[in-house]
Amino acid sequence: MLPNIPEMIYTWLALSRLEAIMVPVNVHYKSLALRYIIDDSTADGIIFHADYEEDVYSATSILNTCKIFIGIGECTNDETINFQEYTEKSVFGGPYNSDENDTNVIFYSGASTGPAKYAKYSNWQLFKNTDDYLSAITYKPNDIIFTQYPLTHFIGYIAVMNAAVNAGASIAICDVENEIEYSKTMTTAHPSHLIAKPQYFSYLNQKNDKNYLPDSIQLAITGGGRMKKDIHKIFSSIYKIPVFKIYGMVEAGPLLTVNTNRDKPTSIGTTLCNISIVLKNGSEMVKEDTIGEICVISTILTEDLQDLLQENIHDGWYHTGDLGRCDMDGYLYFVDRKAYVIHVRGFEVYPEQIETVIAKHPKIKEVVVAGVYQDEYSETIQAYIIAEDGKHPDDKELIEFIKKELPPYQIPKKFVYVTHFPRSATGKVVRQALK
Question: Which domains occur in the chain, in start order?
Answer without folding.
Answer: 1-94 (3.40.50.980), 341-433 (3.30.300.30)
